[in-house]
Amino acid sequence: MTIIDTLKNLVHSSPKLELDDIQATILFKRPDPYYGTHVLLKIIDAAGGRALLSRLAPHVRSAADARINTTAWIAVALSHAGLVALDIPEDSLASFPAAFRAGMAARADRLQDFGASAPANWEAPYGSGDVHVTISIFAPDEASWKHALATAQNEFKDIDGVTLLGMHDFGAQPDSLNPFGYRDNISNPAIDGGIEDLLPGQGDAIKAGELILGYPGESGVPMAMPQPEALGRNGTFVVIRKYQADAAAFNRFLRDNADDEAGQELLAAKLVGRWRSGAPLTLAPEKDDPALGADPKRNNDFTYKDDQAGLQAPHGCHMRRMNPRDSKLAVLTDVNIHRIIRRSTTFGAPWRADLLEDDGQERGLFFIGISAKAPETVEFMQAEWVDHGNFMDLGKERDPILGQQDEDSTFTIQKRPVRQRIHGIQTFCTVRGGEYLFMPSLTALRWLAGEGRETA
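== Peroxidase ==
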C-alpha cells in the first residue's frame, strides 16, 4: 500500500464516536410504537439551575447505554437563555452560533413564520425567553415511560430556583402514525461511525461532524463548536417546532379534489410522496403496499433517478422537498450538508378518516430536528424547500403539508401529456411554538452543573 493509499484510507475511515458521552436520542432512533413527554423548565437562579443539571445528569442515557438497553431514556437540552441563566462565562456564550443565540422567535422572517404561525400567536411559554431547559422522555411502552417521567420529576420538583412551565405528553400507538394518518420518521440519515447498520436506501453515511460537534464534516474538518471543548464536543443543536394539525381540513381537501376513496388516497400519497402505510410512490406508484411500508429494509430503498420527471412522486411532494435525494434541482445544492436527524413526535387524538369538521380535540406534531447546525439547516429548509418552489422549478408553490399557504395556492401533479394543477390547497399545519436548543454531551452537562469550572 502506498503512502497516498494510506492517507486516503485515513481520510475516509469512520471516526470512533465517543458513545458513552453522546446523548442517546442523537444516535438512537425513536421507539416504534412510542410514548413520551416534553417538559419545559425555567431557571430562576444559577445555583438552582446547576443543581438541576447535577441531579439530572446521572439519568441521561448515553448512546453506549442505549445500544444495549432499550428501555426509556431521558434527554436534556438548553436554550441560549438557559445558558445565560446558568451564568456560564461570556466568552463561552459568545462561542455559540448567532442563530442559536437569537432564538427561534427572533428568526421568524428566516423561518417564514408569518400570519397565524407568527411568534405573536404562539402558545406560552414558547418564544418568551422563559424556556431554559427541556427534558424529553422517549419510551417503547407505557410502564417505562411513566417510570422515567417520575424519575425526572423527582429530580426537579423540589429544587429552589427552578420553575416548571409545562409538560406535554406525546406518542402514537400502535403504528406510529402522524396526525394525518401516515407512518412517520421512516427516513433518517445514516451517520458515519454511528451505532445503527446502514439500511437500504439511506445512501452513503453522512460524516459525523455534520450532526455531532467535534468530528469532521463533509468538508473534512470539524465545524466550529462552543468553547471550551468540554462544553462543545459531543454535543449538538436541536430545533423543536410545535405544529397544530388540521386533520379535518386535510380530509376535506382530499374529498373535494378526488372522485372516490381510492382517488383520495392516491391524492394524499401524491401530497406526501408515500402512502399512509409508509410505502413510497417510487416503489408502489399505483396502490398502497402495507407490507412494503412496514419493512425498514425496503420502504426507503429508492432514488429518484428513474423519476426525474416526477410522474411517480411529484416534484413538490412533502417527502421530496425534505430530502431531494438525487433529484435534478434547478438550484445547485449539496443535499448531504442539509440533512438532519428527525425525532418528531405526534400528540393528541389519532387521525380519523371520517373527520371533516373540527371535533375540538388537540392533534399535532412536535418536529424535532438534530444536527451540528440545526437552526441554520432548518432555516434553509423552511425558506428554500418548504416555502418556495424555485429549487424544483415550481415557482411560488409551497410544501403541501408544512407550507404556510397563500390564498388560492396550488399543488402540481406531473402527468403526461398534461400536468394537473390543483387549486385551493390550504395550510394544514400551523406553528404554535418552538425553540432553538443545545443538547450537551454528558461531560458538558456536568460542566454546566459546575464541575470543572468556577461557580457563582
